Amino acid sequence: MKAQIKWIDGAMFLGESGSGHTLVMDGPPDAGGRNMGVRPMETVLIGLGGCASYDVVSILKKSRQDIRDVHTELEAERADSEPKVFTRIHIRFVVSGKNLKEAHVKRAVELSAEKYCSASIMLTRGGVEISHDYQIIEVD
């Protein structure tokens, strides 16, 4: 896997993934930015959410659960002093579907956290406390 980062100006950077996709990262005005893109640490949090969400959806589909939507909310705390690393992250999965079995949803979240989500496992090994919960919404 590869990526490239190009400095645009101020605190703005353009990131390009090895697969050719780009995103704009920028800082707040008080740090020389113009608030035109996500912050670099926000991209880490979004990446974690995407990784975990992908796992949960994939596992639930393999379990033949009738999922209609998965909405994932992340909330992170950072250290007060430099380096301002993540110290705690909470991930909440809101899973909507028809006749979903709670045991399957619980197991999908656990498998993502413990076995499949490389972003989560990497952050945990780095000392970040990551917690999870889920909510199931029954739809017609």
Automatic annotation (TrEMBL):
<dbReference type="InterPro" id="IPR015946">
    <property type="entry name" value="KH_dom-like_a/b"/>
</dbReference>
<dbReference type="Pfam" id="PF02566">
    <property type="entry name" value="OsmC"/>
</dbReference>
<dbReference type="InterPro" id="IPR003718">
    <property type="entry name" value="OsmC/Ohr_fam"/>
</dbReference>
<protein>
    <submittedName>
        <fullName>Putative redox protein</fullName>
    </submittedName>
</protein>
<dbReference type="InterPro" id="IPR036102">
    <property type="entry name" value="OsmC/Ohrsf"/>
</dbReference>
